[in-house]
Specification:
Helix content: 25-40%
Number of helices: 4
Structural class: alpha+beta
CATH class of one domain: Mainly Alpha
Strand content: 35-45%
Number of strands: 19
CATH topology of one domain: Helix Hairpins
Radius of gyration: 43 Å
CATH architecture of one domain: Orthogonal Bundle
Order of helices and strands: HEEEEEHHEEEEEEEEHEEEEEE
Distance between the termini: 61 Å
Length: 363
């Protein structure tokens, strides 16, 4: 019985040992398959999928809409306002009549200049006939003497030249008077919306100093201006897409592209200004509105470089490295880094969307 008890105890101990070994193997297998957080030699941390919300390249800013073109309109001649043909909010087309001065005085001036032109033409016709007559009397075949003196011929020529000059002067004065008459009407310089009306009929309008009568703005295409921090200067380019959201407008979101990057930075904030072009065919967005701008999102992020936390980088033998996991395998990979800040790093080469990057826990 003692031997049998000892054999049973041995067999029980053996079974316990086998179970413990199996449990240990199961723990090890589970650790490798579950997460590298338990891999020997690696600190605790998390895996970040490149291209997820935490790894996309997306920057936010607050911007303001501005009209692409804006003009304050006035007259180039002085007079009394006869009629204002538009009001605030009206949509106008290029060349459309907007404001008129009383044209009576200018019409009288045109009529006078036309009479001067007619008189100058009559004088020129008379001078032309006289010159031709003098020329026939002065020019004779060889051997015959002229019927008039040289002075008479020269006087006729001078009379003709003077009449020609007076006609040119009268015609120039007529063009000037007609231009002044044309300037009694203010025309829309481009397709626009009237943003301010500054005069009413009966008011005087001066050319110098100028009296502004209307303000118009082109709003079918708006400029969205915003500022970005200095560290992004190297990655934002002409043509970079942006998206925006505007409160108080339904729908208040849309997309555009950066068309201008200002060459100088604001010394106080160390930021640079950008301008994006926004289509506004239904005029729902207004100049002066604020918008929340998102720069370099989605496909633009892949084109401009991927962003990962700075802590995921390791400096080894003069190169930057990250630990990546893809398709269940982990490896150390060398990457090329662009813009580097205290919190983030731009990866220009070495990573792609879908890679999982190891980010050690802080502390």
């Amino acid at each position: 019985m003692g031997l049998t008890g000892r054999g049973a105890g041995a067999r029980a101990a053996g079974r316990i040992g086998i179970l413990a070994l199996a449990a240990g193997m199961a723990w090890a297998t589970g650790a490798l398959a579950a997460d590298a957080v338990n891999t020997p030699g690696m600190k605790s941390g998390t895996w970040l999928t490149v291209g997820d919300a935490g790894g996309q390249t997306e920057f936010s800013a607050v911007g303001s809409f501005r009209a692409r073109e804006s003009a304050r309109l006035g007259f180039q001649v002085s007079g009394r306002v006869q009629s204002v043909l538009v009001d605030v909010g009206d949509v106008v087309k290029t060349g459309q009549e907007l404001v008129k001065l009383d044209p009576a005085l200018f019409q009288i001036e045109v009529a006078q200049r036309k009479a001067d032109v007619d008189a100058a033409r009559v004088s020129l016709e008379e001078a032309t006939l006289n010159l031709n007559r003098m020329k026939s009397l002065f020019d004779k075949p060889p051997g015959e003497l002229p019927s008039i003196s040289r002075k008479q011929y020269d006087d006729a020529q001078i009379q003709f030249d003077g009449a020609s000059a007076r006609l040119r002067g009268a015609e120039g004065a007529l063009r000037f008077a007609q231009k002044r008459l044309d300037e009694t009407v203010v025309l829309a310089p481009f397709n626009a919306v009237v943003s301010k009306r500054l005069v009413d009929p009966g008011e005087p309008a001066n050319a110098a100093p100028i009296t502004y009568v209307l303000e118009v703005q082109e709003v079918q295409i708006l400029m969205l201006e915003f500022s970005l921090p200095q560290e992004l200067l190297g990655r934002v380019k002409i043509g970079t897409p942006v998206s925006y959201d505007v409160e108080g407008v339904a729908p208040g979101h849309g997309k555009g592209t950066i068309t201008v990057i200002y060459p100088a930075l604001d010394e106080a904030t160390r930021s640079f200004r950008c301008r994006a072009t926004v289509q506004n065919p239904d005029f729902k967005f207004k100049p002066g509105m604020l918008a929340r701008v998102n720069v370099l999102e989605g496909a633009a992020a892949a084109a401009a470089g991927l962003k990962i936390p700075r802590s995921a980088l390791t400096w080894v033998d003069g190169v930057w490295q990250v630990r990546v996991e893809r398709d269940g395998k982990t490896a150390v990979r060398t990457v090329h880094v662009g813009t580097l800040t205290g919190e983030t790093a731009e990866i220009q080469d070495g990573l792609r969307n879908g890679d999982r990057v190891w980010v050690p826990a802080k502390g």
